[in-house]
TrEMBL record:
One of its GO terms (molecular function) is GTPase activity. PANTHER family: ADP-RIBOSYLATION FACTOR-LIKE PROTEIN 15. InterPro entries: ARL15, P-loop_NTPase, Small_GTPase_ARF/SAR. This is ADP-ribosylation factor-like protein 15. Keywords: GTP-binding, Magnesium, Metal-binding, Nucleotide-binding. Belongs to the small GTPase superfamily. Arf family.
Length: 143
């Protein structure tokens, strides 16, 4: 009996690996991409700086791991986004719902460009209207 108890407790082996999915996270600078990913990873939101280039975070969920490649959103970086699309299985597009009309138009153009890109056009897209807590935030219908 003790042997059976030991085997039942200790010999099951490691849990099965969780599936991993590769996502790309894009949006204009200041839209909140880094804060979103830091929050999903339970990291501190203090001292967050804009991403220049790209960063990769593994976001753990109970049933899966999302490997999210966050691409910087500055004007001089956006033209290189497409170089990082290969292998993506989904897209997170973050926009600042409280941004100026000009920035919202720029975000709209970038979103349309991403939706039409051959490596992304068949993938699931999550469009996140961030900064809903700001007084100038637009509703989902307005966005």
């Amino acid at each position: 009996l003790p042997w059976q108890c030991f085997r039942a407790l200790c010999c099951k082996g490691p849990p099965p690996p969780r599936p991993e999915y590769d996502l790309v996270c894009i949006g204009l600078s200041g839209s909140g991409k880094t804060s979103l990913l830091s929050q999903l990873c339970s990291e501190s939101l203090e001292n967050i700086v804009s991403t220049t280039g790209f960063s990769i975070k593994a976001v753990p969920f109970q049933n899966a791991i999302l490997n999210v490649k966050e691409l910087g959103g500055a004007d001089n970086i956006r033209k290189y986004w497409s170089r990082y699309y290969q292998g993506s299985q989904g897209v997170i597009f973050v926009l600042d719902s409280a941004s100026s009309e000009d920035d919202l138009e720029t975000a709209r153009n970038e979103l349309h460009s991403a939706l039409q890109h051959p490596q992304l056009c068949t993938l699931p897209f999550l469009i996140l209207a961030n900064h809903q807590d700001k007084p100038a935030a637009r509703s989902v219908q307005e966005v």
